[in-house]
Amino acid sequence: MDQSSSWKDNTVAVMGKIAANRYLRAIRDGMAVIIPVAIVGSFFTVVTQFPITAWTNFIKPYAAGLAIPINFSMGFMAIYAAFAIAGRLAEEYDFDRISTGVVSVMVFLLLAAKPIAASTPAAIKALGLKAAATVVPLTNFGAAGLFTAMLAGIATAEVTRFCRTHNMVIKMPDGVPPAVSASFSALIPATFLIVAAWVIHVGFGFDVNAFLQWIFSPLAYFGKDNLASVLVPILLTDIAWLFGIHGAALATPIFWPLWYPNLNANMAAVANGSVTSANAPHFMTEQFFQWFVYVGGAGATLSLCILLAFFSKSSYGKTIGKVTIIPGIFNINEPVIFGVPIVMNPYFAIPFVVAPLAMGVLTWFAMVTHMVSRTVALVPWTLPGPIGALMTTAWDWRAAVLCTVNIVVAVFIYYPFFKIWDRNQLKNEQKAAAEDAAKAAGIEAVPAE
Asked: How far apart, in whole angstroms, are the C-alpha atoms of residue 33 and residue 83?
């Protein structure tokens, strides 16, 4: 085995282990549960932003009420993630995911929030209350609490596993309903976790959420509205895909806690009427990549599917193009990535990375200069690119144009590499056909005995 082959195998092995890490998988899957509620919540933003004056005037009196689902979707995403991450790990460890998820939410609440008693007239008035009450700040329930949610989910699952491994659980007799039995099994680990979380936050006064934000603050640079925060995630995600590693397995735990606060801020600003999508405070969101960079999926492969379907001369290219273009339109690109394949393919490695980089730079420039509105809603990722771009920017037609331009740019970047691949594929097909013909002719020429 030569040195380059050994390096390649070692790299694949290392990246494979990283992507297969149970915690990264749990975080990725746990964050995914946020998508349905976030999408539905975003529809309320989209509905209020139709670019029709009569509609805007009609909906204005209802703006405060329409903002409520937005607050309960993106504004509570850390709670949903805490439940789902713990549940995903519990499922992998083969114990009850519901009770584990509930305990995780309790741990998260104890670590991330501290109730405030409003009893004086001044405090009651400041909080807009009618009488004395205890209120819970919601600041850390949204994207700001995602790191704490990850910690709560993983810690809950691991402490529960430790207790079960060492028989530190309450076992109920046969005949007890499974839900009741699971609840009692979770009692001892729940006690450890809840008491520990209370001691840390209330007893010692240690703010875990603030500490985690400080620890991960160097990553925050890549959540800012700068060019580096465009380029680095693209490089990480696409290079991982080239080795057959799902890029989201790496990108989700690193970048989503940085992108979602920006989208949440945009949605909140639009909901309260302080800005429109044209001048929203941030452009660096997950939707920036979804609708303007990864059109068709990682690597902007819809452009390659177009080339395969309509410009291939080889039979294989035409066939794979017809099979992959429809999924590609709806941003499903596993068929083309593993069908061509693109994984470990020297023909397409360069455009698979360069095309998204070029699209990212173009989109960054367009949004920095306000040529295109910014993303203010989370919309279903299976929409065709220009439609998704139109909706996520609250109906800015220029966003659909930009998405289309980006697709064309990626077509031109892929084209020379596609031609080389297709020419080589056609040559191999012609050679195979000639060999088959020669073999058939040779068989026919053999004299009968």
From this structure: 10
